[in-house]
Amino acid sequence: MTVLSVDGLSKTFDMHVLGDTQVVGLDDVSFDVREGEFLAVVGESGSGKSSLLKCLYRTYDPSSGEVVYHSPDGDIDLASCPDRTVIDLRGDSIGYTSQFLDEIPRVPAVDVVARPLIEQGVDREDARSVARDLLSALSVPESLWQAYPATFSGGERQRVNLAQALAPKPDLLLLDEPTSALDPDTRRAAIDLLSTYLGSETTVVGVFHNTDVVDAVADRVVVLDDGRLQRVVPTEAYDEEVVLG
Amino acid sequence: MNDLPTQRSRERVTMTEHTTTDDVLPDEGTPVATDSVDAALESLDSDGLEGYNYAYLDEHTKREVRRSVLKAVAIPGHQVPYASRPMPLARGWGTGGIQASLSILGPEDTFKVIDQGADESINAANIRRLAENTADVPTTTDTTEADLIQSRHRIPEEVLTDEQRLVLQVPITDALRTVDPSDAANRRRHAHKNYGKMWVHLYENVVEYGEIKISSRYPTMVAGRYLMDPSPIPRWDVPKLDHADHLTVLAAGREARLYAVPPHTEVEPLAFDDRQFTVERFPEQACHACGSTDTYLVEVSEEATEDGDNAFETRYACNDASFCAKRRKNPDLPKDHHLEEAVDWGPGTPDAPTDDAGTPVEQGGAGE
Amino acid sequence: MTLLEARDLQTRYGPGCPRCVESTGDRAGTNQCPHCGSVVACADADLSVEAGEVVGIVGESGSGKSSLAELLALERDDDATTAGEVHYAGHDGNLLEVDYETRHDLRTGEIALVHQHIRDGLNLEFTGGGNVAEKLLSAGQRSYEDVRARIRELFDETEIPVARMDDPTSTYSGGMQRRVQIARALATDPDLVVLDEPTTGLDVSVQARVLDMFRRVQREEGVAAIVVSHDLSVVRLLADRTLVMRHGRIVESGLTDRIMEDPHHEYTQTLINSVI
């Protein structure tokens, strides 16, 4: 069953500050995402991976095309639905995390992770308990749980970020290089967590830099090049390409 | 105000005398010799009041004050502006009260003036004499004999009846000025019955003292509509205004505003459901002169008669001097002794040391 | 559920003329009418706020964001000429035209304003608790102990030491005073809180804590908010949707992250790129 149908998605930036130049981010990208699958988006730097994810999350306003989310309540075109529909979906079914943690300073790490759950109505202490489990699974030292993420190292912040995105178990999770700053061991812990914590109900679209992550978790791979879709292939096929390439 | 026709006829008489007196020029008052004050006084063949209107004020002024009083009665607790003429004493010495009294008084009225409960203060005596001289009214110190009582900062201990009127002198007309000096803003608050600021004032009072301890000018709702400054009467006197039989007129000379509590009007001091309004209490104290324990007492310092370490001794005394005099003759005289039916008038007996909410009572008499 | 719906809001200072609106705004590059000299503080402003939603309004000084917020908070400015419609869930008619009493009731009940300047919103001579009490007492509460209990609850919620509730507000730090304002705004469980420049006058470290506290309380209470700020980071942290204002007009609106990362309007792009 298809959960997301991307059809003819394009994104062009009008850069007024650069003398009204136009920058093409995505050009006519189409693919489907199946329910419960883990879809990896790969490509060179600047190929449009992050732009694709941001268009799916509506952090970027798609210039044309459709992103139809087949929700239990019916189809919603994420590219054109009202802002409020997007806000509602973000609240309970679509999660997103970027490479950069974007948090209010002076909130302890455990509360940063627990916040989405609390906002969904989970009891505060239950939410904190889930948060501690996630931080522990991602090998964030316990001494840091009550500390402010603003003081953390890049890798530690990224783990807090990932834990926060995973905590509410969204139906569709968009991950933008969530492991880029992690050492191999922690990356492996993160990968394990993605499969064990989320289970089969969550569909993941993730941008990954490291092929080992793609290998470990992805069912299929979307390959982007210069804003265009090259192909969508099963992970095994992609692996062969990489080896051959 | 049943005496208006009498007043008019009296005035006509005065005018007639006035115009037939040879040495008086119609437009220039009584001519006097000007070489010295003594000579001037010498030259007066009367008490110097010839040429003055009945009750000192001219008829237009009195009419204007009466109109304002009527309006004030019609809108209980609402401050009504009036012209407030210059009076032969300084603003702040009861000029508002005098104008109200002199506008209401007729020759058949008996007038009583008290100043903080005392008939014999210089100011009270002077106001009384002014009325005697200009309005030709008999005066009294006996509350029950008076038709009109002008008072500064007290309501008498003896029950006032529907035959009587009380005029209270008012220094500050607006209860809200305590919380906001802007009259414009306060008028808007009155218009919309928006008294939140005053409630905060009460809240802050309880925070500071554990109970509402506003000693005088206690903010009071009249007829459930307007917040009123009842003038600097002690809390003790505020309940006397509630559903009273008499009319109370409150007048301020300096501020040129007056307001009224008509008879049988609900007057409710602001208080919280769980921090009730309390009056001053004087546990274990009685008036040293008459022995009363159910009257408003004040501390008096007097030079000790016997020599000792203290040059002064503090005693408690009734604040209402004329009732104290009666009690000295008859210690059991009730406050409603002059009435056929018993009347609930102000605070009850001093036997209850706490109020209903169990709040500890205040010691001693509150000053201003 | 739509809580507030505003149409064609306008605030003008000055005599006004028929050409005021067409001669001002983003395209004209000014908010002052060249024909009559009137300042069109805001015009043509449409917006709606859902229950529980946070809408940010950003713009530089003089862009009209505070004028817009004041209209939405039913604040009145006698010097201004205002027009437009504000509709509010559960109330008939245009709220800009209601009488004083209805407005007063709305302002003590459903809609709360947190003033930019603490002195406009708080009486510094009152105790901190007294400032919160005023809202409750104005709404008709008459039990001293109930008022006290609610103040303690609100102080707790807004992270003000309860032990300080009986101290004069003037002895509070700036951050605490701002919290008292917020506690006061939340006292009667409003549906909508309008915050005008909530970080004005606060140290950077205090700003963060106040914003975090507000965001937590806002989500927990499900209260909708309109947050006005010249500071993009304030809006970025609090708002679901953001309106960008310039020369008295809304030039762009959308999801806050979209505004920040994919600004469409030239001015918004400049604004985003100006952030240090």
Automatic annotation (TrEMBL), chain A:
Taxonomic lineage: Archaea, Methanobacteriati, Methanobacteriota, Stenosarchaea group, Halobacteria
Gene Ontology MF term list: ATP binding; ATP hydrolysis activity; transmembrane transporter activity
Transmembrane segment boundaries: none
Domain ABC transporter: start-end pairs: 4-245
PROSITE patterns associated with the record: ABC_TRANSPORTER_1 (PS00211), ABC_TRANSPORTER_2 (PS50893)
Domain of life: Archaea
Protein name stated in the entry: Phosphonate ABC transporter ATP-binding protein
Keywords, comma-separated and alphabetical: ATP-binding, Nucleotide-binding
Cellular component annotations (GO), alphabetically ordered: plasma membrane
SUPFAM superfamilies from the UniProt entry: P-loop containing nucleoside triphosphate hydrolases (SSF52540)
InterPro entries, per the entry: AAA+_ATPase, ABC_transporter-like_ATP-bd, ABC_transporter-like_CS, ABC_transpr_LolD-like, P-loop_NTPase
Automatic annotation (TrEMBL), chain B:
Keywords assigned by UniProt, alphabetized: Lyase
Basic and acidic residues: bias regions: 8-21, 330-341
Name of one Pfam family that matches: PhnJ
GO MF term list: 4 iron, 4 sulfur cluster binding; lyase activity
Region called Disordered, residue ranges: 1-31, 328-368
Keyword Repeat: no
Protein name: Carbon-phosphorus lyase complex subunit PhnJ
Phylogenetic placement of the source organism: Archaea, Methanobacteriati, Methanobacteriota, Stenosarchaea group, Halobacteria
From TrEMBL, chain C:
Protein name: Phosphonate ABC transporter ATP-binding protein
PANTHER family the record matches: PHOSPHONATES UTILIZATION ATP-BINDING PROTEIN PHNK-RELATED
GO biological process: organic phosphonate catabolic process
GO MF annotation terms: ATP binding; ATP hydrolysis activity
Keyword Metal-binding: no
InterPro entries named among the record's database cross-references: AAA+_ATPase (IPR003593), ABC_transporter-like_ATP-bd (IPR003439), ABC_transporter-like_CS (IPR017871), P-loop_NTPase (IPR027417), PhnK (IPR012700)
Domain ABC transporter stretches: 4-272
Keywords on record: ATP-binding, Nucleotide-binding
